[in-house]
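Retro notes
What went well: the complex prediction finally ran end to end.
Inputs used:
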Amino acid sequence: MNVLPWVIITPLFGAFSMPVISLLGGKFRGHWAVIVSGLTLGIAAKVFYTIWKSNEILVYTLGDTNPIGNGVKFPIRIIWEVDLFGALLALTVTFVSFLAILYSLEYMKHDTGLDKYYALTLVLELGMIGIVITGDIFNFYVFLEIMSIASYALVAFRNDTWEGIEAGVKYMFVGSLASSFILLGIALLYGQYGTLTMAYLAMKIAENPTLISKVALAFLVGGLLFKSGAVPVHMWLSDAHPAAPSSISAMLSGLVIKAGGVYAIARIIFGIFNPGLHSYLKAFDMPALNLNTLGWIIIFFACLTLVIGNAMAVVQNDMKRLFAFSSVGQIGYILLGFGIGIVAYGDKIGEIALTGAVYHIVNHAVIKGLLFFIAGAVIHQVGTKNLNELSGLARRMPFTTLSFIIGAAAIIGLPPLNGFASKWLIYESSAMYNPILAVIAVIGTVFSLAAYTRVLFTFLGVESEKVKMVKEPGNAMIVPMLVLVIIILVMGILSWQISDKIMLPTAKMLEQLNGEYIMALLKFIGGG
Amino acid sequence: MRPQNSDMGLIVKTMARATIPLIGIFGAYVIVHGHITPGGGFQGGATIAGAGVLFLVAFGLSEAKEKINKNFYSVLEGIGGLVFLTAGMLGLGVVFFYNVLWHKGPVFNGEAGTLLSAGYLPIMNLAVGLKVYTGLVSALFAIALFRRWKK
Amino acid sequence: MFGYWDALYFIYAFIIGLLISYLLMKWAEKASVGTRKEGDGSKIYISGEDQDKVIPQFEHLQGYFTGRHVMWGFIRGINKMFLTFRREHTGLLTDYVSYLLITVAIVLGVMVIWG
């Protein structure tokens, strides 16, 4: 039996049964959420292993065995189309969510309304898994909204301070506007081509690339740039991430802007508007979209993002706000990788850039998860996140400081940690494609180094009054941090092997030089 | 200043007594006929939730607090979701959301267009209706209970 | 193969770097006659800046020991840029919405003209 539907069923069941479970007593809610997310992690790992082993795209039809309608020759049912990229993202999402839920056992112990908290966290996880496995563009929108609404609510979960409510309301208003741009793009595509299945849509667009498809693409990319937090529209992120509880910040920063942002951009560009298909059409003088333009738009926003995001991190006083701006900067690297992957499509350079971008998504999810867990530990134990009051934490919280040093070194991209490997691939490809891009990327890293050095020196400095009586947090918070530290170290030492065995096939499968994404669906039309 | 939990006047209460059952019946009709007429679980559930809100507005918060147990509603909402999920999982032997009741029976596999047809759809409509009704009433209740400011 | 790097080389380089910096520190300690190890004299070891001096426009960096000593010149040199960036982060909802509209308009315009 196919395990793929269980990756959706399990968190959905966990979220719906949370009110029933909470009747049993307060303690069970957290444990139930841990069990459910652990099971989901296992299932996602199984799905990933299956696809990695067979190196084939998995197509799963909802409601029937065949996506093609009775008596017609086109797909009418919702399909889930999982390639290695989606499966890798699903694995990352479930892994970091599992650790975040484990972490909240202690971090959220003193809060009320925890059944809602855990139900919303599972729904957030569900939305992200749905986005990465779906092959139907309206289904994608539904999961995007599930994810977005859960994250609006979770940002404002601690409603005893103005910070959470203000950030949540702002995020909700602007986020809904961005979602409606995405919906407008989907509606335009549906009106023009009459189908919602991504792979079939790709064929239809290649047959008849009209102005409408360009406009729809622009709306989709514009809305998704907001969701991924690219620079002119990153301001919701720097409000929302510091205001949310730290376990949620780790999920928002590590996962939500990846699954709902950069993953979706990559999937829509490479799945629906495949650059290879359109340059092939152009070679035969047929009407085609010029995807190079889009690549340069993405590179432009990426450069803006990685310089301004990292630079703003330098001048923050709030530790979590600094990490949030750093996330903006790292999204810039990922977008740069995808942008070069589009303009240098089919080339060795493009492949390296895509490998680096995919690798950096995973690395950043792990590292930023760790950094926000550390920020949460500091807030939980000291009660402040103002850097000016946190001086000299190293003597009182040595493990937290050590994890911070490792996390900061990894995110700056110091060898031999995992952040270096992915950044190196992006630098190399950008230097080969256009040296100016590489220079901009390095400038971003310099700012990132400056920002993290500040935090590090704060931790190592003279002891201040506030931290005199501080202890390390409990085990439920230490263990997730320890796991992430070990993962960072192992991924750092084995980074070349990981890049060769996992990330390169993933990038190839995303790039799909032979149109595998469309072929996976065409199999049904031919046979049906 | 009016007391916080005041109910509306006699006229409104009388009208509410008369109309709440009618709204409820109409909503139930929309839910049950969801698979053969326009509308469905969400629309019918929202209609019934309208009756709940009318009760809350007409009789005041204190009366509503006695009649509506919000923990119970929260559990009902979860059960609605679980029933929907279970209906989707009935055909898991084939694929997720496979309409096994419609294809194989034993119930809800009558002639298309009749009430007892369409397989899992009536069950899902009922579940969604329950979830929407309890969810909306709980949300409105939470808004009514939310008092941050000092009187 | 392209993109090759080995973690071990960097560990060796790191160890050598640590060794060199340790030797440098020892040498500097010996060479700097007259610098005390406690009190005001120790400041010279961290950087050339006075720790307690308040730098104009960088009052927010005051604290026990923030990174300002390390990154002071860097931040100071491009101070204007930071001020511009900070001014743009108003935190107003209307600004967020207008930035979103501007972004979508840029993407739309470029795609329609050159796409």
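What we learned: Chain A has one domain: 6-527.
What to try next: split runs per interface for comparison.
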